[in-house]
Amino acid sequence: MSILDKIDDTVYSYATLRQKEMIDALRQHNGNMSRASESMKIARQTIQCNLKGLVKRCDTQSSYTVPQTTVEGQAISGYSTLVKFPEDDPLGRVLEWVKTRKSITDQIDAMEKIAQSLSEQITPVSSVKYLGNKNPSKSKITVIPMGDPHIGLMTWKKEVGTDWDLSIAQRVYKNIFARLLSECRDTEECILINTGDYFHADNIEGQTSRSRHKLDLDGRHGKWLDVGGSLLIMFIDSCLKKFKKVTFVNVPGNHDDILGRFLGTLAAQAYRKEKRLTVMCGDNPRQYIKRGMLGMGFAHSHLCRPKQLPQAFAMDAPQIWGETKLRVFFTGHIHHDSETIYKDNNGVLVVSAGIIPPTDAYAHGAGYSAQRTMQAYTLDADRAEMVIRASVTVRGED
User: What are 291-320's pLDDT values in tens digits?
Assistant: First the structure.
């Protein structure tokens, strides 16, 4: 009997995320350990040891029932449960502490349901009047990637060289965005992208949910939520005034798994009566749009790295890939304004958006830096080419 035959649904439920990836790889390759290890780029022995340990541990826990995850509405972070081993345990152990933990995925799902319920009570904004050119270009499209706004970030000039807080962010983004739109061509459609990390933090602890990094925040979470919401409305309203059609693409980042996704729900509910706006809420970490001979992908790129995105495009959206001549992937996360065609995967232009906020204390201390810019691109959907690129940089008067 192979190791895969010993893994049923019960054993799978006890596996860590990494072990589940190993099991999935084995199943995909019909139990072939060599092919699974090659596809995951890890040693065959690593998979064997992990899964044998998993099966053995589950054999000793056949009568163990996972405890409840909430008590009187309060989430339980974990249990220390006493599990008795069989008397013939070859390792001679008698007792083991088994720790259970509700996964971050379950937390995100629960929060999204709450957010959806709350957002449905939002009063929709009034229809925004179009003030742009009466005959804008239909073949050309304006694309504006908002690179990692990090709303809620606070920096101190004496520490990092630049002061930054919520009031400064509001003023600078208003001025920068107005200047950028004035540089844009008159096109019928605009695609506005939140490239991720819209909020600097995702919780009241002021830490990233995944890595628990401590973040520099300006005040209570309610303050940066209010500012983030008002800035989102400013961005969308400004685009609706200049362009006849606007598509808002929302891409959650690694700093805001939960709030980043909620931003899409907020936009969809707040503008549910605005027929000129389409909202892509951000359920998938990679999203795609086709316009004529132009294919566009959107990702934060903290999960699928920039060099992997061309291959991901072909895998995720083969029809768009086959029907287009120019393919562009817009990303955030890197904090640098750059464009690269990866020679190993020809056919996709990968664009990383620049950012407006300064580096925080951690990044500054590590020697990271980036020019503070925001870009807009004009793409021709009929001719499959990038026509123009506009860029504005933070100035002293901003």
Answer: 999 999 999 888 888 888 888 999 999 999
Q: 10 Å Cβ neighbour count for 8?
A: 10
More confident residue, 205 or 253: 253
Strand extents, DSSP E, 68-148:
70-71, 74-75, 79-84, 95-100, 137-146
- The pLDDT of residue 21 is 84
Whole-number percent of the chain with pLDDT over 90: 31
User: Which is nearest to 270 in space by CA: 222, 234, 226, 233?
Assistant: 233
- The whole-angstrom separation of Cα 383 and Cα 10 is 54
Kindly write down the DSSP assignment for every residue of 232-271, as one continuous string.
Answer: HHHHHHHHHHH-SEEEEEE---SS-HHHHHHHHHHHHHHT
Report phi then psi at 299, rounded to 5: -160, 155
Q: How far apart, in whole angstroms, are the C-alpha atoms of residue 394 and residue 392?
A: 7
Tell me whether residue 95 is exposed, middle or buried, using C-beta atoms within 10 angstroms of its C-beta: 0 to 12, 13 to 18, 19 or more: exposed
Mean pLDDT throughout 242-261?
88
Determine the pLDDT at residue 93.
46
* Domains of the chain by start residue, with CATH: 3-59 (no CATH), 106-393 (3.60.21.10)
CA distance 288 to 160: 37
pLDDT at 222: 77
* Angstrom distance (rounded) from CA 253 to CA 238: 24
CA distances in angstroms from 383 to 138, 243, 291, 333, 379, listed in the order given: 12, 21, 11, 30, 9
List Cβ neighbours of 136 (8 Å cut-off, separation of 6 or more): 186, 187, 188, 243, 244
pTM attached to this predicted model: 0.69
